[in-house]
């Protein structure tokens, strides 16, 4: 069930909430994800995910697009705002639909925006994010981003946005700035769905493979992004221009997911409107 709360602002902004599904046996799903699937070698997880992802690259899979849209989107003409990727004139596979591109990016009315679309499943000051046990290794939030704990201000804000399969799956720069770090961290591919992990919805971000990108804004503040993979994620792809020292403008594309994903961020700002379990939209005011 979803609901809307009208917020009075100069942009007449609406906050939508996504109530977490009531999973009857959530603890069993968590056990399967972390203790059974998660105990398998990472190479095996990637192999199974790769095989699964290939199904959506088959030509026949394009016939899933229309019924999928009918089930998941209220707008009859939902796809009209998008175009197939890589200059294609039509969707050849379901994967083409999954990595669809906006015909026109949203209009920006602020200096910082949400980099992606999804459910804000976790948010708090860095100092309040609980640690998690990964195969006997107790990890803190800074380890998601692969940096020294001393480099993160405790007053900065951690957010975790879960991108459902139906969401737009391109990640964009939340600010104007300069890329100061790009890092790949190997890891598992445990299930991403936050409602499987009632005590800590960000558990997958602590242990899954991910790409971390730091962007320094024009006030010399660093925004840390962690682009986290999961089961069936065939690839996390970065545009060629996303390299150390590159300048990015707000809403420049910085990453692309091929199936399933989560995007974590540590920022010097608290979101103006959104709270936990609200829906966020790429390009909307952060």
UniProtKB/TrEMBL annotation:
Q: Which InterPro entries does the entry link to? A: PS_Dcarbxylase (IPR003817)
Q: Which GO terms describe its biological process?
A: phosphatidylethanolamine biosynthetic process
Any keyword Transferase? no
Gene Ontology molecular function, alphabetical: phosphatidylserine decarboxylase activity
**Keywords tagged on the record:** Decarboxylase, Lyase, Pyruvate, Zymogen
Whether S-adenosyl-L-methionine counts among this entry's keywords is no
Taxonomy, superkingdom: Bacteria
Know the name of this protein? Phosphatidylserine decarboxylase
Q: Which organism is it from?
A: Aquimarina mytili
């Amino acid at each position: 069930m979803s609901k809307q709360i009208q917020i009075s602002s100069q942009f007449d902004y609406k906050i939508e909430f996504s109530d977490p599904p009531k999973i009857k046996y959530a603890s069993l799903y968590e056990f399967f994800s972390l203790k059974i699937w998660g105990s398998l070698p990472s190479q095996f997880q990637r192999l199974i995910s790769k095989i699964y992802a290939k199904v959506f690259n088959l030509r026949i899979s394009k016939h899933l697009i229309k019924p999928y849209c009918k089930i998941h989107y209220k707008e009859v003409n939902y796809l009209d705002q998008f175009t197939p990727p890589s200059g294609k004139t039509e969707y050849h596979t379901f994967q083409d639909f999954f990595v669809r591109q906006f015909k026109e990016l949203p209009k920006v009315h602020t200096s910082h925006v949400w980099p992606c679309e999804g459910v804000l499943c976790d948010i708090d000051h860095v100092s309040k994010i609980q640690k998690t046990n990964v195969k006997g290794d107790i990890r803190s939030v800074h380890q998601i981003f692969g940096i020294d704990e001393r480099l993160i201000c405790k007053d900065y804000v951690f957010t975790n946005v879960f991108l459902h399969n139906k969401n737009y799956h391109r990640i964009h720069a939340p600010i104007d700035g300069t890329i100061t770090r790009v890092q790949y961290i190997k890891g598992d591919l445990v299930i991403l769905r936050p409602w499987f992990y009632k005590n800590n919805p960000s558990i997958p971000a602590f242990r899954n493979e991910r790409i971390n990108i730091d962007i320094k804004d024009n006030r010399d503040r660093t925004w840390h992004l962690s682009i986290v993979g999961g089961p069936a994620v065939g690839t996390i792809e970065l545009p060629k221009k996303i390299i150390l020292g590159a300048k990015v403008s707000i809403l420049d594309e910085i990453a692309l997911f091929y199936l399933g994903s989560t995007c974590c961020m540590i920022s010097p700002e608290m979101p103006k409107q959104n709270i936990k379990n609200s829906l966020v939209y790429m390009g909307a005011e952060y």
